[in-house]
Design brief:
Length: 320
């Protein structure tokens, strides 16, 4: 499944230039870090959601480009801060900002990106777009802290898991879709519907990411990484709630005390696979994907709508 880049090729190319301008600084050290960050940006999925959501209702305008820049600035800020929190020296196969410039600079860089994004919207009176994205930042922070709290107690509540991923991951995609659509339609009801669409896609996106922990493909992170970090993802939660008491006790002991031992982690992965954790999680992901596409179908068929469906399919079919 390919990304629908062709449909918004012009917008993405122009966005690249606008984003570079948006992160420039007069402080030489900061500008050097920003150039490093810009060069190593990922697939730009979130700006794609902004532009496709906008194009559903009209041509991209300056407000659309600012919305895409704000989304990417906030996303990048969270990644920089995450690497500090997780003590991570690598990001997308390259040294992280944290690895090269250490704690203080990384925290300040994240703060700078956040401030630049907020100012970009405030200076142009994009208040509704700023509202969507500010709420997403709040939810992302709450989700991260909730995950930290629950991972200590190894909470096995599936509802809590969905609350965490809705806040941590889905909230930003939801805001991207709401902001993009608002920039061209200026209609709250439509933007709210697109926000719900983005939320469903975001849930499917995170579930797919969690499934990678149980595959042997080259996915950019070690197999069993979530287990080593004591993160209770859906395949594990389902399995722990559906195995016998002795197996559950053994799995929990491994997660708490032996999560760095490769053979023990592999045992947990095998139990998850054997007891239907992967199949159950895959069905859940497919359900959110269907809900997202159904929400999109309030609009008549068009090249942009079809491209958006391709993007949703990419999210769930991707190999990394």
């Amino acid at each position: 499944m390919k990304l629908p880049v062709k449909l918004i090729e012009h917008e993405l190319k122009l966005f690249e230039e606008k984003f570079k301008d948006a992160v420039k600084s007069n402080v030489s050290m900061l500008d050097r870090i920003m150039r490093y960050v810009v060069k190593r940006k990922g697939k730009q999925l979130r700006p794609m959601f902004v532009f496709l959501a906008a194009r559903l209702f009209g041509d991209a305008n300056e407000s659309t480009y600012r919305a895409a820049s704000l989304v990417e600035l906030l996303h990048t800020a969270t990644l920089v801060h995450d690497d500090v929190v997780d003590d991570s020296i690598e990001r997308r196969g390259f040294f992280s900002v944290y690895a090269l410039w250490k704690n203080k600079a990384s925290v300040l860089v994240g703060d700078y990106l956040l401030a630049k994004g907020l100012l970009l919207s405030l200076e142009h009176d994009d208040f509704q777009i700023l509202k969507y994205l500010s709420d997403a930042v709040r939810q992302m922070s709450e989700g991260e802290l909730l995950q930290m709290e629950k991972s200590r107690s190894l909470n096995l509540d599936e509802g809590v898991y969905f609350e965490i991923i809705k806040s941590k991951t889905a909230s930003l995609l939801a805001a991207a879709c709401a902001a993009g659509s608002w920039s061209t339609c200026q209609d709250i009801a439509t933007a709210e519907r697109m926000k719900k669409f983005g939320e469903k896609v975001g849930l499917a996106f995170q579930i797919k990411d969690d499934l990678f922990d149980y595959t042997s493909h080259d996915v950019g992170k070690p197999t069993g990484n979530d287990i080593k970090e004591k993160k209770l993802t859906l395949p594990l939660i389902y399995t722990l709630n559906n195995v016998d008491r002795q197996t559950r006790r053994k799995m929990i002991y491994i997660i708490k005390n032996e999560n760095t031992r490769k053979a023990k982690v592999q045992y947990v992965i095998e139990v998850v696979e054997k007891n239907g954790g992967i199949d159950y999680t895959t069905r859940k992901m497919a359900g959110f994907k269907k809900e997202a596409i159904d929400l999109l179908h309030f609009l008549p068929s068009s090249a942009i709508r079809d491209g958006f469906e391709d993007l949703v399919n990419f999210v769930t079919d991707r190999k990394y």
